[in-house]
Amino acid sequence: MDIIKISLVGKGRQKIIASITFDEGPHKYLHSLVTPWIEYDCVINDVPDSVAIVPFVAAILPIAWLCDAEVVVADNIDADFLNAVERIKQGFQQAYPMLNFGGKITATPVHNVPHQQILESACLFSGGIHGWASLMRHIDEKPLMISLCGSDIAVTNRKAWRTVNKVNKQTAKDFGLEYTALTTNFREVIKEKALNKLVKESGESWWQGFQQGILLAAYVAPLAYVYGLRNIYNVSKTGVMDCCGCHVIDDDSNSTDRLAKFRYLCSLPDDIISKIKFHVCEQPNSDGNNCCRCEKCYRTILTLVAVNCLGGVERFGFAWDDKAIRRCHHFFKTDISVTSSLAMRYYPAIQQEFIKNKESIHDFAKYDWFVKMDFSKIDEYAVKKVRRFFKKVKVATRKAWRRIGR
Q1: DSSP class of residue 35?
Q2: Percent of the chain as helix, strand, coil, to the nearest 5
Q3: Is 231 within 8 Å of 99 (Cβ atoms)?
Q4: Exposed e or buried b for every residue in 76-99, given b needs 16+ CB within 10 A?
Q5: DSSP 89-127
Q6: Would 184 be classed as within a structural domain?
Q7: Rounded CA gap, 114 and 45, in Å?
Q8: Helical axes 340-356 vs 258-266, angle rounded to 10°
Q9: Are 58 and 42 in contact (CB under 8 A)?
Q10: 85 touches 105 (CB < 8 A)
Q11: Shared domain check, 194 and 84
Q12: 232, 313: one domain
């Protein structure tokens, strides 16, 4: 059995640094020359080492399980977290029964009790539909708002993070909440393309399906200790765990229907809706605003139109007019990022919502093309076939040149 060894390298006033060493098997999926770190915008130097190590251990677990490797923790680790590991693994196995989650963890447990309880609960918040729905459901609890840089926004894209962080801070201020954020380079530690191939059978990308949920849940462990939190609301079935008396809860189990969340948010009082600004864009070179030209933006905009949100999609942070609608139509017919497998997961339900609300949707005729589009055959457009062909040629040529270079 291959071994992945994890230890703390340093812990400062606001930053934690770890070391991850591994055998040949996991080497396919991890960069050996990248040192993982997390930086918080609050003081964490009083956090016990057994809690500070939790984020790095939890983030590496899905890779270890799928490689059937043993995770060896050189330092002590929080007992609540260690006791939850098997339950976390079972959650992954239930979510992805076509894959085998093996491996094990070896560590010495230590019980940790925070010195004080400053806040009762927290919400993980990215500005997307799930984060907003979760925040609004628990707004009466006055939860701590927590955002992370290094997930949807690359750690190197400082401009985008400044924009998003500023908006999130304003959101917290608008609702009278405390706000904190953290930054991590863990996405640079993993070899994401190789991991996507590893889990191809699941139909999910590595980051969205296997890494993001558990990473978000784990990286707030030091904050759970600092604030004495009891509940942290996450929106991921694979992002549940315990640490130092705090429970990270799957807040998505109450409403797995994406459309239901849109309806819920659009039904809120007008003074609340006026404060909601979605951040959904996942373009790598995003400036932190919604580009209104990518699949994620189009999916969100079309859903808002379908549920007939009052005041239009513009009030939620999107630029949308007749030209944008035509551009959206062209995008679905030509962009190879929109595959039939992806489209069939989301768009038929949105089409049904359009049909249900036909009489009340303003300018419904402008979306006639969308309602009639057969997303099961979206890969068959000629332009897409040509683009996929040239992409394969480009990849094959690049590989050939690499072999020649050797």
Answers
A1: P
A2: 50, 15, 35
A3: no
A4: bbbbbbbebbeebbebbeebbeeb
A5: HHHHHHH-TTS----EEEEEEE----S--S-SEEEE--S
A6: yes
A7: 13
A8: 40
A9: no
A10: yes
A11: yes
A12: no
Q: Are 165 and 229 found together in one domain? A: yes
Report if residue 261 sits inside a domain.
no
Tokens of 128: 């997307």
Residue 376's domain comprises 291-386
3-state secondary structure 133-145: HHHHHCHHHCCEE
One domain, residues 225 and 351:
no
161 plus 26 within the same structural domain: yes
* Coil/strand/helix, residue 23: coil
Q: The tokens of 138 are what? A: 């628990």
Tell me the Cα Rg of the chain. Answer: 22
Amino acid present at 278: F
pLDDT tens profile 93-115: 999 999 999 999 999 999 998 87
Q: Which residue, among 158, 141, 166, has the nearest Cα to 279 in the 3D structure?
A: 166
pLDDT reported for residue 253? 53
What's the pTM? Answer: 0.89
Query: Which residue in the block uniquely carries the two structure tokens 């729905």?
Result: 133
- pLDDT, one tens digit per residue, over 143-184 is 999 999 998 888 999 999 999 999 999 999 999 999 999 999
d(CA 13, CA 40): 9
Does 53 fall in a domain? yes
Predicted pLDDT at 389: 86
Taking 70 as the pLDDT cut, the residues of the chain under it are 253-256, 310, 405-406
Cβ atoms of 309 and 316 closer than 8 Å? yes
Q: Please, are residues 73 and 57 in contact by the beta-carbon 8 Å criterion?
A: yes
Among 191, 224, 250, the domain boundary falls at 250
How far is it, in rounded angstroms, from Cα 105 to Cα 54?
Answer: 12
Residue 285 belongs to some domain of the structure: no
CA angle 3, 110, 151 (to 5 degrees): 60
Q: What is the pLDDT of residue 255?
A: 47
Provide the domain count of the chain: 2
